[in-house]
Structures are given as C-alpha cells and as structure tokens.
C-alpha cells in the first residue's frame, strides 16, 4: 500500500515538473517569436525605405536620361523597375558619384600642382635674384678693395713726398736763418759804420744817429718813440698810437711826421724822414737842444 502511494506521489511530481518545463519552453518560444516578428518588421521597414530610395534614384536617373515616365511602362522602364534595373541604376548612381569625387580630387590635385609650380618658380626667381645680388656685391667689394689699395699706395707716395719736402724746407729754413742772421748782422754793421745808425731798446725804442754833421761826425742825434693806448669815449674801443717821447735835438715838423706814421704805419719812412730833417736842420743851423 505504501509503495503504491509512493509511486503515485512520484508520478504526480514528475507530471508537475513536466508541466513546468513545458510552460517555460512555451514562454521561451513565444519570446523568440516576438523577437523574430520585431526583426522582420524592422527589416521590412528598412527594405521598404531602401526600395523607395532606389525608386527615387531610378526615377531621377530615368528623367536625366530622357526616359518617359508614362504608363504603361515601356520595356526600358520595366527594365529599370525590375530588380536588375534597380541594381543597374544603383550601380550607375554609385559610379557617377565616384566619378564626380575622382574629378573633384583630380581638380584639387591639379590646383595643388599649379600652386606648387608657382611657389617653385617664385623660389627660383628669388634664388636667381639673390645669386645675382651676391655676384654684384662681390664685384663691388673687389672694386672697392682695389680702390682702397690704390688710395693707400697714393697716400704713401704723398706722405713720402711731403716728408722729403719738409726735410728740404727745414734744411732751407736752417740755411735761410743762418744767412738771415749773417745778413742782419752785416746790415747793422753797415748802418753803424757808414750811417751811424743804432737802435736801443728800453722804455720805448730809441733811434740814435751820428755822421750827420760834417764838421762834427761823432755828434749824436736821437729820438725815442713809444706805443700808447688811447680810450675813445665815442667809439668805445682802445686806439693804439705812436708818439715821440723826446727828440734831441728837436725839430719843428716832428709832430706832422708822427701823424703820418700813425696813418701809414711806415716806420722805415719815418726814420728816414727824421734823419733827413736832422741833416736839413744841421745845414740851416736852426737846431736847438732840449734837455
């Protein structure tokens, strides 16, 4: 009895387990069916969209090629609307698209090539210009270097010539100074010996004569001159004038001779005139001595 009950219980458990598994399988199958339906609907929608796009492309291609869209369709139209026609239209459209892209790419390459050639030509022109400029600069530098060398040689020649001339001038000046000193000494000795003329310095310049009076050749006649500064209030500057400090013996026309001396500044003429006046006064006997 217990064995039969146990077997019945086991059978019920097995049946319950079978029902549960069948339920699970049925739910899984239903899910698969739902997923398949969804995928089919999505594929159908995509196919419909692709078909519409293919038809529009085919219609555009047909219109571009001048094929009539009248109904009923001709054999050519039926060819385009057939699966093979749609494929051919799609391939044609893709081919034209690729061809357009290739043309644009080739145009871009051609433009880039032209730009590169232009840049290359510009660089060649700049290189040629720089080469010519460098050549001209080199030639100019060489010419300037030769000019500088010529100028240096000319300068050296001039310096040598000037140095030689300076040496000659120095030697001539030395000879002239020696001869001049000798000539001056000779002239002073001659004036003193034959004319009795002497010049003595001090406060002013003293001129002494003798050999004027024939009867008394050793008799001395002298005068002294000095340079004075006079302030002229009207002209507002210092005026330099020569005046006779004293004259032994005195002569009447000495003042006139001094005025002429201040106008002409000819001292030699003044000295000769004073000696002549001494001689004339001695001959006429009108000299008077002032001490």
TrEMBL record:
Transmembrane segments: none annotated. Keywords: Cell cycle, Cell division, Centromere, Chromosome, Coiled coil, Kinetochore, Mitosis, Nucleus. It comes from the Eukaryota. It is found in: Chromosome, Centromere; Nucleus; Chromosome, Centromere, Kinetochore. The keyword Calcium does not apply. Residues 8-39 form a coiled coil. GO terms for biological process: cell division; chromosome segregation. Gene3D superfamilies: Chromosome segregation protein Spc25. Residues 201-279 form the Chromosome segregation protein Spc25 C-terminal domain. InterPro entries: Spc25, Spc25_C. One of its GO terms (cellular component) is nucleus. Acts as a component of the essential kinetochore-associated NDC80 complex, which is required for chromosome segregation and spindle checkpoint activity. Belongs to the SPC25 family. Component of the NDC80 complex. PANTHER family: KINETOCHORE PROTEIN SPC25 (PTHR14281:SF0), KINETOCHORE PROTEIN SPC25-RELATED (PTHR14281). This is Kinetochore protein SPC25. The gene is spc25.
């Amino acid at each position: 009895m217990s064995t039969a009950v146990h077997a019945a219980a086991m059978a019920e458990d097995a049946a319950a387990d079978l029902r549960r598994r069948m339920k699970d399988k049925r739910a899984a199958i239903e899910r698969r069916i739902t997923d398949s339906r969804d995928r089919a609907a999505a594929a159908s929608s995509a196919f419909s969209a692709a078909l519409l796009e293919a038809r529009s492309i085919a219609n555009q291609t047909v219109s571009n090629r001048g094929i009539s869209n009248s109904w009923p369709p001709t054999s050519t139209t039926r060819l385009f609307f057939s699966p093979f026609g749609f494929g051919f239209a799609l391939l044609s459209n893709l081919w034209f698209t690729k061809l357009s892209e290739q043309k644009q790419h080739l145009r871009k390459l051609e433009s880039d090539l032209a730009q590169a050639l232009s840049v290359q030509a510009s660089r060649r022109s700049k290189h040629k210009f720089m080469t010519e400029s460098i050549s001209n600069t080199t030639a100019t530098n060489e010419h300037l270097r030769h000019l500088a060398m010529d100028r240096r040689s000319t300068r050296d020649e001039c310096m040598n010539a000037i140095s030689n001339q300076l040496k000659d001038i120095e030697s001539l000046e030395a000879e002239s100074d020696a001869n001049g000193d000798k000539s001056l000494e000779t002239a002073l000795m001659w004036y003193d010996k034959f004319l009795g003329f002497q010049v003595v310095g001090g406060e002013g310049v003293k001129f002494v004569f003798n050999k004027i009076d024939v009867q008394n050749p050793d008799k001395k006649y002298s005068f002294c001159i000095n340079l004075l500064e006079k302030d002229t209030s009207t002209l507002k500057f210092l005026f330099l004038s020569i005046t006779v400090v004293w004259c032994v013996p005195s002569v009447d026309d000495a003042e006139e001779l001094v005025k002429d001396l201040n106008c002409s500044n000819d001292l030699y003429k003044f000295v000769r005139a004073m000696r002549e006046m001494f001689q004339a006064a001695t001959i006429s006997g009108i000299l008077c001595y002032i001490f």
